[in-house]
Design brief:
By secondary structure, the protein is mostly beta strands. The chain is built from six helices and 45 strands.
Amino acid sequence: MFKNILSIWLFFSLCSITYAQDSYHIKGFVINSKTLQPIAGVNIVGNNLFAISSKTGEFIIENVARGTYNFSISHIGFETKKVTVIVKSPTVIRSIYLNESATVLEKIEVSSKSKRRIIKETPIVSHTVSKEFLEHNRENSLMQTLSKIPGVSTINIGSGQSKPVIRGLGFNRVAVVQNGIKHEAQQWGNDHGLEIDQQGIENIQIIKGPASLLYGSDAIAGVVDIQPNKIPLENTFKGEVNVLGESNNDLFGISTGIEARKEHWFYRVRLTYRDYGDYKVPTDKITYDNYVFNLHDNNLRNTAGKEADASVSIGFVSDKIKSETVFSNVNAKNGFFANAHGLEVRTSSIDYDRSNRDIDLPFHKVNHFKITNNTTVNTDNHTLYFDFGYQNNHREEHSEPVPHGYMPKPSDTKERIYSKNTYSLNVRDAFKPNDQHNMVLGLNMEYQENTIAGWGFLIPAYNRFTAGVFAYDQFEINTNLHVLAGVRYDSGLLNTKAYKDWFPSIIKNNDGSTSSIFLQRSKNKMLNFGSLSTSLGLSYINNNTTYKVNVGRSFRMPLANELASDGVNYHMYRYERGNLDLAPEISYQLDLDIDHTAKWFRVGVSPFVNFFDNYIYLNPTSNYYETLQIYEYTQAKVFRIGGEFRANTTISKNLQLDASVEYVYSRQTSGPKEGFTLPFSPPLSGLISANYHFKELFFFKKTQLVADYRITASQDEIVPPEEKTAGYQVLNMSFLTKINVLKNNLPIEMRVKLNNVFDTKYFNHTSFYRLIDVPESGRNLSLSVTIPF
């Protein structure tokens, strides 16, 4: 009996082993191709094979033999997809992307309203920028891409650089945040752009109005918050290659990114390279300081540049902990328009028209290295957020070694070198004491060390330390009425370093004699600042209409250049002098927002009233240093009022119209420029957009044709030496589509864009080059192709 049982057991064991050797399984994930979110309940049907995807989109088909299998992938609201799987190895893993059908579009709309509910309940005037918006509106720099948003404009520096302006305020009054850490470069300068790679960014939140409560000093006008990308799904790998070409400046750019995740660990990698020549303007001559400069082939000479960016991140995610560390580096070299830099073109031996791609003097080189870590820890009642950051911004400004005043001829071209190291720490504790309250307690700390070099002095070396503590509570009075109240205190310490000229100057003594001394440009000075920020907001939802009101007090610490600059800025052709007696800027602002959504249209208005008790600005005086006019930093009371209006409507199933208007009125109510507006004040501007969706166009899928018509009024309100700027109208066109090259792969995305269709000559009042009578760039045709894999 025992032998019989043993024989039967051995027989079935051998059969099991043999079967196991020939048994394989198919594992896969079903993902929404538009949102990249998993889809649950999908039917995977083959010949005698069947599976249903789980909540994570995962499915497994066991006991499959070697061979080729055809599956039908179907789910309500999505297009049915046919997939062929070749089984050669024990485990075959496939990621399947389903396209939404017309049915699911209505459901997505309902779901998006549910997500918008959170934004409606928060009494802050903000705008969320999606990955789709960034891809469809991408320009040469991140801020030029965002300038289509009402209330957001840019100070442009050539074709590859720009800095943000929110409701007429820019420079260090707008905080740019990436991965929870404030981006710290040399953003105080007119010709200093942002060293941020805009490729691979998925989500940006723009806060209009004071945000010092959450972000501290430098957020007195608003915030551009570049938020971390979504964490990849389990056991997935994906990537993309983006190729870009432009006609105006002969630009070629390529960017590739990949990301992957196992169960808990994930990583991302992105490389970007851009190379471009001098950009063209719709004129053949420019008049600056009573000189006429002829342009060769309409090229704005010496505005070529190149940029190489890289980022690598590694992360871990579990039920309790989420953490990601990002290493990034942005390296750029850009030429300055030669005629703008002290008029050296008149005497220079450089042949600026030899090539439109070379980068001659003057130029700058910038390298921005950054490490950030974002960690979230979930406990039973609290969520702890930790943000750590280190940044090094190294900037070199090269010019022809020309002596000025008593300065001997320098031995090299390094006019100014700045190197800034910044260490940042943010800690937040979010918790709910009960169902009505969402409370947050937080701490921000930042330490900066900025060193200088080169033969030209403008600002001193300095150390700066800031720390702020804050608390706010968003509580629900009832389902449709929410209140947010918060308070913050900041303290700052700025230590400027002494500096003397490297050459002696001759000065006259009181007795009529002369002395040769090394002039001291800055002193060792320790300055302390501190201030309180408060905010109180209310949000009320009445059916399809949301009402928001927010009132707050915010502040901004003076910068080293405002306090202690003392030198010639040849980029602006002026002498700049700081003021150690400056007090922190204090701003009071009232923001309103009304948004109404109906079935076929949406309309909103966001007015604001703002008062600065001591606004800091650079004031031109009647004094001169050699032949250069002296500008001095001073303070004045400033009153501002303005806002944005927006509307969109669906004319038909395929046609959508959008319109927006923005306006800011500023007036200095005290100081030497009492009665004048503020520098770089944007004029009244409107944008009308038409978007037509084609069902199918040949082999193109989901095709869109977009027309943007910008109407800008003249700007007659100026501050000398600014000049009045005439109004203009500019038309831009875009063609967006997807092409299915292979049935089982993601479609290739293509964008063809024609900016300034009619090659209109116009001036942007907020452009850096407007001061020297340089118009905006001419007609530009760009082609962008994104290949996902």
